[in-house]
Amino acid sequence: MYPIEQVEALNPEVTRMVVRAPEIAKKIKPGQFIMLRIDEVGERIPLTMNDCDPEAGTITIIFQAVGATTMRLAQMKAGDALLDFAGPLGNPTELEGAKRACVIGGGLGTAIAFPQAKWLYEHGCEVDVITGFRNVDLVLLEDEIDAHSTRQIIMTDDGSNGNKGLVTQALQQRIDEGADYDLVLAVGPVIMMKFVAATTKPYGIKTLVSMNPLMIDGTGMCGGCRVKVGDEYLHACVDGPDFDGHLVDFDDAMRRGVMYRTFESAAREGRDCNEGEGA
Ligand code: NAD
Ligand code: FES
């Protein structure tokens, strides 16, 4: 069992949880994920690491209560324990050698992008972090990012923090100002990553995107997490989760992303999946 040490609501939708898992904490690197299962009847879900403390033997995860499992997870308390917590899975993000990076987080993706920004900053890279949220109440990790970046730009869709616009507008502005990035890393909604990659492509800036399609086994066996990259289908769990943003077929990823919505909403409402949404 994997004891939960801390649980904290970061906003009405998002929870931060610290889990004791010393063997994983020794090995996990930015970009890698774990698969967890609450109990023997629970489904396995992948969650990308937000932070780790090898000395304390803990992993921090941040998740949005959107599905049946994450809603149950958000109800758990310090002192409870998870049945399975397997990892590290996937490949670490390739960050070595970057000198001027821009790390972009869209909504919850900010939590996943944070360890990369922190690693880059701690390894002498100049790091701009651009984050985007629907409104100021949903802003995540402002203090943590401030402490681990050269510059933080927070955008809101409704302008409620005084900075209205999408992350791509802030990115374009920084490029126009001469930011001269050698790496852009984007984590967030697929549509956001698509437009981040479209923004950097004319400038030939290396752009990595973190794909999080549906995952079942997390080991390359089930084929659920296929992502079209160039001419081939790769598996996000074993070949990714990061891919070259200029090669990913984002439209295909968005089509695949809606395929299981009916089953997910049935599971959330405790209905038989075969009843479908309209039943
Ligand atoms: P959201 O829909 O509120 O979007 C967050 C920000 O993304 C917006 O504020 C905006 O700045 C930017 N954005 C959205 N659409 C854009 C567009 N068309 N062009 C440019 N920028 C755009 O995000 P949310 O509701 O917090 O959802 C988080 C999303 O992140 C979910 O879709 C989730 O699946 C995804 N996510 C991805 C990963 C990953 O590893 N890739 C991890 C966690 C979450
Ligand atoms: Fe099954 Fe990737 S999750 S192949």
Automatic annotation (TrEMBL):
[2Fe-2S] cluster binds at C222, C225, C237. It is an enzyme of class 1 (oxidoreductase). SUPFAM superfamilies: Ferredoxin reductase-like, C-terminal NADP-linked domain, Riboflavin synthase domain-like. It comes from the Bacteria. Gene3D superfamilies: Nucleotide-binding domain of ferredoxin-NADP reductase (FNR) module (3.40.50.80), Translation factors (2.40.30.10). CDD domains: DHOD_e_trans_like1 (cd06219). Its cofactor is [2Fe-2S] cluster; FAD. Transmembrane segments: none annotated. Its EC number is 1.18.1.2. FAD binds at I62, F63, Q64. Binds 1 [2Fe-2S] cluster per subunit. Binds 1 FAD per subunit. Coiled coil: none annotated. InterPro entries: Cyt_c3_hydrogenase_gsu (IPR012165), Dihydroorotate_DH_Fe-S-bd (IPR019480), FAD-bd_FR_type (IPR017927), FNR_nucleotide-bd (IPR039261), PyrK_electron_transfer (IPR050353), Riboflavin_synthase-like_b-brl (IPR017938). One of its GO terms (biological process) is pyrimidine nucleotide biosynthetic process. This is Ferredoxin-NADP reductase. It comes from Eggerthella sinensis. The lineage of its organism: Bacteria, Bacillati, Actinomycetota, Coriobacteriia, Eggerthellales.
